[in-house]
Specification:
The chain has 208 residues and is α/β, with parallel strands linked by helices. It is built from ten helices and six strands, in the order βαβαβαβαβαβααααα.
Amino acid sequence: MKKIKIAIVDDHPMLLKGLKGILNCHPEIEVTGTYLNGQLLVQDIPDNKPDIILLDIMMPVQNGEELASILHNEFPEISILAFTNQEQTYYIRSMLDNGVMGYVLKTCDEETLLQAIKTIYSGKQYFDPMIQGHVNQVLQDDRKLTLTRREKEILQLIAENYSSKEIGERLHMGKRTVDNYRIALLLKLDAKNSAGLVKTAIDLGLIK
């Protein structure tokens, strides 16, 4: 059985130790590393190649918002799960804009954390039920329409009815990476599926 490889970034050593112990009790999960800051994590990624990064927001030197942006741009094949005490709408919006796939509070129970990990590993988003109201507000009020060059390329290929596998082959990236971009586009354009994504993109003049 292929294990879900997880890296954890948090500036509290006891929390890192506790999380590692909890997650390693599950045979389908392997904690590949724990890190007190983002610099140590980025240095280690080429060797450990995690599937998911559990990322705190409030950290010294480099906060989670900055680190999420770097990780999303440099390692788009890795899914990011915000694991934080911050439940304000501002932080939810910021982390989503910076590419996170899920957002879970540190007050959650073990079952919720496991569900979040498995959900984003499957390519879907996950939000802690305790912040769903804030998430809905973000999705309603904050339609972010600025697309990167790569997002525009992928959006155009989606409109031309290419599958994620075919897009990956054309752009020399993995299917999982394309799926992460697809989810980010659905969020940015507030669409529920590919058909809605294409219609909204055409209406907004983002594609031909």
